[in-house]
Structures are given as C-alpha cells and as structure tokens.
Write a structure and sequence with these properties.
single chain, 715 residues, alpha/beta, Methane Monooxygenase Hydroxylase, Chain G, domain 1, polyphosphate kinase like, 4 domains, eight-stranded mixed β-sheet, 36% helix, globular, disordered C terminus
Length: 715
C-alpha cells in the first residue's frame, strides 16, 4: 500500500460525479449544436442511472454491513453516501433547469415541440384517441393496491403511474391506490402526424394519464403521478460454486430485475402522502427520494436526436476514411506483412477490422481464428464472419465475456448462436473478467505459417467504434504471435501463465511492470536524464500507481495525465504532485483509448492496451497492454495522438487539487485547439500529419511532444 494518506486522494464516487458534471456541461454549452446538447443531457441521466444501480447500491450495502471501513480518501460509506446525495441533488437541479430554461425553449424555436393534450386541436385529439385505443390500451395492465393485491414487483428503471381513485362500495366512499406501468414496448414520445417539417410530440405518460378513467371504470380519478425506481443491478455470482456459468448469469439477470430499490424519482406535484407511501413500500428513506421538475426518464428523449431531420442542429457529418496504409492494398495480410499498422478510431474506419475477419473467413489459407469478445453488440458482420469461417472448415474459438455489465443478455444470446454454428465458445478463467481485446489469425503463407494479430484498446463493436476513440494495432511479428498464442491457451486450456515476450498481462504482471516503468523514470530523473510520463486512460484509482506518480513528481518527473473519468489523484499539491497535471477531454466522441508513454532517457517506450489504472483491471480482469515497436508509429502516437490531446484548449478541463475541473481556454495570442476536430482533419487530409501519407498546410501550429532521440540509439 502507498505511504500517502487520505488527504492525498480524491473520493472515487465524487470524482465520477465530477465527470458526469462535465458531461452535463456539454449540454449547458450554448456553443454546441442544439441536438448535441440534448444528447449530452440524456447521457447525463443514463450515467446517473448506472451510478445508482451499481455504485450507490454497493455503498448502501456497505452501510448495512457490520464492518466499518474507510476509502483511500478517508470517508466511511455513510459519509460517502451523504456527500453523493448532496452532489447529485445539485447536479439534477442544474440538469432540469437546463431542460426547462434552455433546451426545451430552444427546441420549440426550431419547430420541435412537446405538447399537452389540453392544447391539441380536435383533429390531433381524434388521432391521439385512435392511437390510444389501438396501440396503448391493449398492453396496459392496471394493478390495484389493497390487501388482496400487494404492491407489484416493478422492473428496474421502469416508468409508472401511481393513481388515486375514489369509488362507492356498500354505501361507503373508499379511496384506493393503483399502479399502471408504462409499457416498455412503446415509444415514450409519440410523434403527431404532420404534413410539414414540424416535429410535434406528446408524452406517452400524458396519453395514459388522460385516459385513466377508461381502465378504471366506475371510479373517480383523484389524481395520478409519475414515478420511477432504480434497483441494485450488480450481478453476484460465485463462479467456484456454479457448474455452468452461462446458466448462472442468466439466473442472475432475472434477479437483477428484482434487486433492492436504491432510488425513487417522482414528479414535482406528487403529494407528500403519496411520496411517503412509495418510500415505505419500497423500503427507502427520504434521502433516496428525488423530486423531478421535468421528464422522469430523459433517456427516452434521445428519440428526438435520432433520424435524419434537422442536420443544422447537429455536428457536421463525418464518415471515417480507411487508414492510409490500407487504402491501396486490398489484401489485408499483404499489408500487415509490409509493416505494423496503427488504426485510430473513429477517425479511421473500423471496417478494416471487420474486413480482416471477413477475409479470414473466406481465405482458404487461413487455418484458425481466435478472438476475445467483450461487447460486440451482436454485430452480424463480426458474428457472421466467425460462423462463416466454421462453415469453411477453419478452427474458430471465441472467448466470450458473459458478464460485460448491462450487455449480459445480448452476450448470452449471440454466444449461443456461435455455439450452434460450431464455434468453440469459451467463457474464460474462473474469477476473472476477460477484458483484453485481441484477435489471432493463423495463416499458411507461401513461405511459412504466420500468425496475424489485432490488438486494441476498444471492443469489437462497429457501432460504438463510430463514436469511441480507440487505437488498434495490426502486426504479424513472431513475438506478438507467440504471446497471443500463449494467452489463448491460458484462456481456453489448463495451464499456468507463461512469461510473455512483449505483452503486459493482468492479473499476472501488468501492475508490477507499470510500477517498474514509473520507477525507471524516477531513477532517470535523479540521475539528471530526461524523464517524462504521459498516460491516457478512462480512470485512475489504484493507490499504488497514484503513489508511484507522487514519488515520480517529487523526483522531478514531468507527468501529464489525460483521464476521461474518475481520477483519485490530487494534482498540484506542493512538494507532492506539483509536477502532475490532469486533463479531461469531453467532446463529440467518447475518449476511450489507453496510452502509456515513458520518456526512458530519450528512448521513448509507448504502450497501448485495454486496462485502466484500477484495482479491478490489475487484479480481477484479464487485460493486455502491448508495446508499439515501430518508430514511425511511436512518432505518430507521441507527435499526434498525445501532443494534440495535450494541446486541446477548447474541450479539455483541468483537474484542480480540490477535485473540481475548470476549462483551460486559449490564452491571449494562442490559437484555439480542439483535439477531436484536428484528428478528423488529419484523417481526411486537411491537417499536416506526422505519419506517412498525404500532407496539406495546417491551420494549427504543430506540437512536438518527444525530444529527438540521441544519435546512434535505436528508436
């Protein structure tokens, strides 16, 4: 454990909430196109849902435990929960103030309206009634609440109406409550028919509320109010005690729907007595209640973002080109034999990876394909290529991670399809999630049997590859092929971990090797040699890595971190982290790549991989981090990917030592730099590139990151 104390660390949960605030800031930013602002508004809510389902649920379990522990920042679970509660309420208030005061009025100004039924003309009301009768009423189920009808087991994140009715029975006037669940099979936004460009919507909940008397005949409707609950959605599986992991995950998915409630959201005008009834029934406290002045399920507002309408309210369209190294060479295997190829998504098209799989499936010289699959989205091209390869007589193995959070059901479905097609499906090692992103293709070339390897920081998912930033490597170097072979043997067979030639593999060696690389920079700095570390990750939580960064900072190593999300490191502390800066970039695409740069006394080493600096990645997952050995590719990563990211002064926020972030706007006389736009310009040939390929005059000043190597030394 690190020698640094609680005051040197930021709270993990509060750091995540600051990340979500940066997402919300994009919704608040009037410089962003309107529908992009709506997208970020929706993502803010989606992120909060998952935060409550997993993180808050876990904290509440800790609070109920007899053991009392403190996190690395010194807070107990109860103290953390109180801090979360306060921060989330402020965030939600700002989020819905943005909806009411900015987004909804701006949408109305651009002919996108959300209408109340009371304001509809007769023709629209007639259409709505027909829609209700034919599409909605048949799937509604009113659920009474009385001694004969206990409170129903409502689904996680389901939107519901609680209805108060009055009725006459045996000469008495009785009041009763009932629940109507809003059907998930129907859209939440109902678009009214229009003959022009107007986009007029009514909320499905408003339609259901308007016609409640129809499903509660003979009663007087006293009121109805929307509510939504969030449940604990973590999977709890003891792999040592289950013979069939596939079946165990399926069973736990059913349990997830019945998980304990952790949050209740109600609309603003819901009476206190109704709120109290819901809290009592769901075994929640007042701290778990969030009163919402706006749509209770903003995620469904993404419907107005979808479609081909209003291009002027969106980011300019971008179609990623094929990587330059592959444009003139249709034979993927020949291109890889010419030299290692770096792929930078989404700026270079992910179709190259799909094409490699499809070529492998059809190529009679290909003998075997082995691939890890974490989140594919069930893409028919990737799954189809693996099944086609089996038809063509190849040995095909898919190492499938069933427990990819919230993708479990999809993964089970297409894992079964792969098995039925003859693919050898393996679910990895007991006790570890398979998070590595690797594909191994064995081919009988003219001169020898050769192993082609694709390694990546991101998933084999063509959909997310269009808006996640990731980096991949295509290589046929023998050492990489040997490491890949040994890794798949470990995942599919019964063997001990074999020491690797090139890969850094968690949980066996990655943590120790990264610490050793940091210590080497410390030694170089103390010896007066050039020392520098740049790391780009999604999260930085591990206390040992953070402690090593602190020691490196104290030794004089310049450390620049690009951390999209959680960061428990506290920068700019005098005498401890004064040489550390932390950037976070929130923009059009989700920053997802993991890159590690070590100066190594003017002989830079660069690694890419699937792992963030978190204990779970180091000790509870199979992760692969791999070196970039080609000098041109190292220069591309250092001089382009890292340098441009660090130069961003439009979308980068800088972490302060108190845990907050601030924008770092261009200084007077300094040109604005927006890294993602520069990467688009590089990919499309509109910005000077340090890599091979066409060049054009750059509108931005070039940034040089790494010093020139010492003459005579191999780079």
């Amino acid at each position: 454990m690190t020698e640094f104390g609680p005051t040197h660390f930021l709270n993990r949960e509060l750091s995540w909430l600051e990340f979500n605030q940066r997402v919300l800031d994009e919704a608040l930013d009037e410089n962003n196109p309107l529908l992009e602002r709506v997208k970020f508004f929706c993502i803010t809510s989606s992120n909060l849902d998952e935060f409550f389902e997993v993180r808050v649920a876990g904290i509440k379990q800790q609070m109920e435990s007899e053991a009392v522990e403190r996190s690395i920042d010194g807070l107990t679970a109860t103290e953390t929960f109180r801090a979360i509660n306060k921060r989330v309420r402020r965030m939600v208030e700002n989020q819905y103030a943005c909806w009411r005061g900015e987004l909804r009025p701006a949408l109305a100004e651009n002919s996108i309206h959300f209408l109340d039924l009371e304001d509809l003309p007769a023709a629209d009301l007639l259409w709505v009634e027909n829609f209700y009768r034919t599409q909605v009423r048949p799937v509604l189920t009113p659920l009474a609440l009385d001694p004969a009808h206990p409170f129903p087991q409502l689904l996680n994140k389901s939107l519901n109406l609680i209805v108060q009715v009055e009725m006459e029975r045996s000469g008495q006037t009785l009041r009763r409550l009932a629940v109507v669940q809003v059907p998930r099979v129907l859209r939440r936004l109902i678009k009214l028919p229009r003959n022009d460009s107007r986009l007029d919507y009514v909320f499905l909940t408003h339609i259901i509320g308007h016609y409640l008397a129809d499903i509660f005949p003979g009663t007087n409707i006293l009121g109805h109010w929307q509510f939504r609950l969030t449940r604990n959605s973590e999977l709890y599986i003891d792999e040592e005690d289950v013979a069939n992991l596939l079946k165990a995950v399926e069973n736990e998915l059913h349990n997830r729907r019945r998980g304990d409630a952790v949050r209740l959201e109600v609309e603003l005008d819901c009476p206190q007595e109704i709120r109290d009834t819901l809290l009592t029934t769901l075994h929640l406290e007042e701290d778990d209640l969030y009163v919402i002045d706006g749509p209770l399920n903003p995620i469904r507002l993404m419907e107005i973002y979808e479609g081909d309408h209003s291009p002027e309210l969106r980011d300019p369209p971008f179609v990623a080109p094929v990587a330059a190294a592959l444009r003139e060479q249709p034979d993927m295997f020949a291109a890889i034999r010419e030299g290692d190829i770096l792929l930078h998504h989404p700026y270079e098209n992910f179709s190259s990876v799909v094409n490699l799989l499809e070529q492998s499936a059809e190529d009679p010289k290909v003998l075997a394909i082995k691939q890890t699959l974490y989140r594919t989205g069930g893409d028919p091209r990737i799954i189809g290529a693996l099944m086609e390869a089996v038809k063509n007589g190849k040995q095909v193995t898919a190492v499938v991670e069933l427990r990819a959070r919230f993708d479990e059901a999809n993964n089970i479905q297409w894992a079964r399809r792969l098995e039925e097609a003859g693919v050898h499906v393996v679910y990895g090692l007991v006790g570890y999630k398979i998070h590595a992103k690797i594909c191994l293709i064995v081919r009988r070339d003219e001169d020898a049997i050769r192993r082609y390897v694709h390694l990546s920081t991101g998933n084999y998912n063509p959909t997310t590859a269009r808006f996640y930033t990731d980096v991949g490597l295509l290589t046929c170097k023998p050492d990489f092929g040997e490491d890949a072979t040994n890794l798949f043997n470990l995942l599919t067979g019964i063997c001990q971990f074999q020491e690797t030639r090139k890969f850094l593999v968690a949980p066996f060696q990655l943590h120790a090797r990264l610490l050793a690389l940091i210590e080497r920079e410390i030694a170089n700095a103390r010896a007066g040699l050039p020392a520098r570390i740049i790391a780009k990750m999604n999260a930085l939580v591990d206390p040992d890595i953070i402690g090593a960064f602190y020691r490196a900072s104290q030794a004089g190593v310049k450390i620049e971190l690009i951390i999209r999300g959680i960061c428990c490191l506290r920068p700019q502390m005098k005498g401890i982290s004064h040489n550390i800066t932390v950037h976070s970039i929130l923009d059009r695409f989700l920053e997802h790549s993991r890159v590690f740069y070590f100066e190594n006394a003017c002989q830079p080493e660069i690694f890419l991989g699937s792992a963030d600096s978190m204990p779970r990645n180091f000790f509870r997952r199979i992760e692969v981090v791999f070196p970039i050995e080609d000098g041109n590719l190292r220069e591309r990563i250092s001089g382009e990917l890292l340098a441009i990211s660090l130069a961003d002064n439009c979308k980068a926020r800088i972490l302060q030592k108190d845990g907050t972030y601030r924008l770092d706007p261009p200084k007077r006389g300094t040109a604005p730099r927006r890294s993602q736009m520069e990467f688009i310009a590089l990919a499309t040939g509109h910005l000077e590139s340090g890599a091979k390929g066409p060049k054009s005059k750059s509108p931005y000043p070039r940034v040089k990151l790494a010093p020139r190597p010492v003459r005579g030394r191999k780079t």
